[in-house]
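Work Package 3 (structural annotation) set out to generate three-dimensional models for the target panel prioritized at the project kickoff. During this period the team completed the workflow that converts sequence records into discrete structure tokens, so that structures can be stored uniformly alongside our sequence database. As a representative example, we reproduce one entry of 136 residues exactly as it appears in the project archive.
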Amino acid sequence: MPEFQVTKEDYTMTAKVLIVGIDLFIVVTGGDNPHIGTVTTLSSQTDIQTIRYPSHDGRFHKDDILAYRIAKIIKSDLPGSCTITSGVHVNHISKKQIMVSSSMAVDLGQQILKWLKSYKFNATDPIYYSDNENPK
């Protein structure tokens, strides 16, 4: 499972990529309390969509900001679908740490894109019944 990291302002953000056929499942975590705050889906032919989960205090997580940065970078080179879960929490986060979080996500997106352009997917094409065939 490829793993990418970036560290700035005393915290690390990580992206782990699970390859499922030609699809990607990316888990973005970091800080003191990694979690799943948002789920973002996309493909090269579909819009980026996100579900935000409620946090412990009733507000909704904002981790989709990070996933969106990554998604925009890799979108046109995706061979299949992509699902990104994102959950980064830094206890008592500083303004500087908030400011660098977007650039950290961009850095992860660029690392993933570089890997994606060089990775050889060896999944076979699915076989479907034709319109005049039925399962036996």
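Residues 33 and 89 are 5 Å apart (CA to CA).
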